[in-house]
Specification:
With about 130 residues, the chain is an alpha/beta fold. The chain is built from three helices and eight strands, in the order βαβββαβαβββ. The longest helix has 11 residues. The protein is globular. The relative contact order is 0.20.
């Protein structure tokens, strides 16, 4: 068994696509119209056949309170692996990304937490 698809709720799929591709560096995998929304996924360019991230519309009544509660408590909705948190922090900050946690070493892992502009906190991490 392996993870094939996971998702984050986003407030605007087009804005999310721009952020996750143009800023974070993922690539679009699927973009299929589904009524007023889209089945919109991105993948790592390093593993185009790997795990897909669905940019899920947050229109369900439970989605916004859920997202707000996570953000208010500082809990990331997802975590992405990077080779070097400090270097990625600098690259993203230079692109105007807002971080709620600067790089922090926690034993065998270094993490940072960013705002994805779509209502979520996202953690980036690498093992030391």
């Amino acid at each position: 068994m392996r993870i094939h698809l996971t998702s984050v709720f986003v407030d605007d799929q087009e804005k999310a696509l721009r952020f996750y591709t143009d800023v974070l560096g993922f690539v679009k995998k699927h973009d299929v119209p589904v009524g007023e929304d889209r089945w919109l996924t991105v993948v790592s360019p390093e593993d185009p056949d790997g795990t897909e991230l669905l940019l899920e519309p947050d229109g369900h009544p439970a989605a916004k309170p859920y997202k707000d509660a996570l953000v208010n408590d500082g809990i990331p909705a997802a975590a992405f692996a990077v080779d070097d948190v400090a270097a990625e922090f600098k690259r993203l900050r230079d692109l105007g990304v807002t971080f709620t946690q600067e790089p922090l070493e926690m034993g065998p892992v270094t993490t940072a937490v960013l705002d994805d502009t779509c209502g979520n906190l996202i953690q980036i991490a690498h093992t030391n």
